[in-house]
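During the reporting period the student researcher (J.K.) took over the structure-prediction task from the postdoctoral fellow and processed the backlog of single-chain submissions. One of the processed entries is reproduced below for the supervisory committee.
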Amino acid sequence: MSRIGRKPIAVPEKVKVDVHGNAVKVSGPLGELNAIFPPEVPVTVDKGVIHVGAPKPTRQNRGYMGLVRALLANMVKGVTKGYEKKLEINGVGYKCEAKGETLVFALGYSHPIEFTLPKGVKAKVEKQTQITLTGVDRQAVGQAAAQIRSFRKPEPYKGKGVKYSDETIRRKVGKAGVK
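J.K. obtained the following structure tokens:
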């Protein structure tokens, strides 16, 4: 049985959890999230605590218990505190600006890159080189940050590109001078 899956999830006072079969709806002060889990994994809520039951021990079901528990914990945390990813843009002339629900990037290409934010994700641009993505869905925030980073990944020689704020880039030494 999964060690992670056995841990109960404490539900804060402001959060409401509804379980209908294998569909779970979590609503809280920041928003609402819905998910459909495998029907083999029973989810129950009693007295402010979510319990995830063990499925039948087949090869395919083995990982479901821990997965469902982790996804539920992320949903509860998302509707109470929310999730945040910070990105930094490094490079001469590289910048970003927000136009409503669209981010416009100038990343050294011949054209600007327009990125429409997914539903439930908000962006705040500070100093044209720092972007903060926030939202209640952990997967949506992380996916949006990964897509933005993929427009111009940081390169190892000068460190130019879009990187996560907590990411360290392993720098390489350039060419050695010819003597």
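The committee noted the following: The chain has a mean pLDDT of 88.
J.K. will present the remaining backlog at the next meeting.
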